[in-house]
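Q: What residues go here?
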């Protein structure tokens, strides 16, 4: 069943800082590659664009970890740490149709273009308020002071978490970020605290429904949609978990890419000065492709024998689609290692493909678009305040993002 584990060393700290040369080797020499992950789980890595797109939409690859061939202990090493013990497994990242179809339909109303557009003023208010806190200093860490708090407060507002409770959410989310590449216990403790809070909040909201997402889920349950409290809590949890870290990384990685490519950044600033938005729109998609927030798509498990890229996959084998590798595949993208904000033919996989395409992508795009446009407008001479070689990247498996992004600029 297993291919020999050869090739570049993966999942080291050096790899985390720049995985793209290793992914280029895998695409050429071992495009569907069997490897041992840091957790000890063995899995297939799919690295070519065509194979990745096929795998993301293949119904024979289940999201349910019960299909993993490993025993219960092995199953517990996949997915989000602590979600199983906190009874948060029944969410969109772990289930298949028809339950996936039912739950996605319930929550998708919160992410329609109209609802996201209505949220635009709040995102702009949050963005300006965060920049106001450090604009006069002339320096900042854009991860901790900007990219991190912006999506936390946005997703809390969307869910209906009261403003007075949002600092607690920020603390729990911070623990998940800090422990993302280290002991799983730190993440699990945060998950347990979030689970307890969500159960309490759902109970409180039953007597005081609003227009937020949690209230909408409660209404759906009360109107016969068969949404259990565990399902509601799990849904809120995964929207929080997936909704904040992806956007942190999109803003952080995107800003870093612009700072490392001054010619592209100057073109974007000039277009914004002229009141044009076309380059901002194509540029955001290019930043998603070039160094996107999600390095590997979440877990899939073969429910029957199948073949990907000529490689036989056995029933029960875990499969991880490497979005970062697929989106730099020269067979699909011209000059894939070059940042080109005007790139047109850009059907990247940054937010997945198929029925599990990221539900919150419209909101993430709004937040990142607002954040980048406002940063470039308000801090036009923004520059990196550290040697790129000294920057640290979080060593988690799924997400790709900087631990910090120190910058300086003319105080305003």
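A:
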């Amino acid at each position: 069943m297993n291919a020999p584990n050869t090739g570049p060393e993966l999942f080291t700290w050096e790899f985390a800082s720049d995985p793209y040369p290793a992914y280029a080797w895998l695409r050429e020499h071992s495009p569907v590659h069997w490897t041992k992950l840091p957790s000890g789980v063995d899995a297939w890595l799919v690295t070519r664009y065509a194979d990745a797109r096929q795998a993301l939409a293949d119904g024979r690859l289940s999201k349910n970890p019960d299909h993993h061939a490993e025993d219960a202990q092995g199953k517990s090493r996949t997915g989000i740490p602590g979600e199983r013990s906190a009874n948060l497994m029944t969410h969109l990242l772990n289930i298949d149709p028809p339950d996936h179809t039912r739950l996605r339909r319930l929550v998708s109303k919160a992410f329609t273009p109209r609802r996201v557009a209505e949220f635009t003023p709040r995102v702009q208010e949050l963005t300006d308020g965060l920049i106001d806190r450090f604009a006069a200093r002339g320096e900042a860490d854009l991860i901790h002071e900007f990219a991190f708090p912006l999506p936390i407060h946005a997703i809390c507002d969307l869910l209906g978490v009261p403003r007075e409770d949002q600092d607690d959410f920020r603390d729990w989310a911070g623990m998940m970020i800090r422990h993302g590449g280290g002991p799983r216990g730190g993440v699990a403790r945060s998950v347990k605290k979030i689970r307890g809070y969500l159960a309490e909040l759902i109970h409180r909201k039953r007597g005081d429904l609003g227009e937020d997402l949690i209230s909408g889920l409660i209404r759906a349950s009360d109107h016969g949609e068969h949404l259990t409290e565990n399902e509601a809590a799990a849904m809120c949890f995964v929207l929080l978990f997936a909704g904040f870290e992806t956007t942190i990384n999109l803003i952080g990685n995107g800003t870093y890419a612009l700072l490392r490519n001054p010619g592209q950044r100057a073109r974007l600033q000039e277009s914004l000065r002229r009141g044009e938005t076309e380059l901002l729109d194509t540029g955001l998609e290019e930043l998603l492709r070039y160094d996107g927030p999600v390095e590997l798509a979440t877990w899939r498990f073969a429910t029957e024998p199948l073949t990907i890229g000529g490689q036989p996959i056995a029933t029960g084998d875990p499969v991880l689609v490497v979005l970062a590798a697929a989106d730099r595949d020269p067979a699909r993208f011209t000059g894939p290692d070059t940042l080109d904000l005007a790139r047109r033919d850009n059907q990247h996989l940054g937010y997945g493909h198929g029925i599990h395409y990221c539900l919150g992508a419209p909101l993430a795009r709004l937040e990142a678009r607002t954040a980048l446009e406002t940063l470039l407008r308000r801090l036009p001479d923004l520059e990196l305040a550290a040697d790129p070689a000294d920057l640290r990247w979080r060593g988690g498996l799924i997400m790709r993002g900087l631990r910090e992004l120190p910058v300086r600029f003319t105080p305003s």
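A: Context that may help when evaluating the design: Residues 378 and 397 are 34 Å apart (CA to CA). Confidence is low (pLDDT under 50) at residues 1-5, 179-185.
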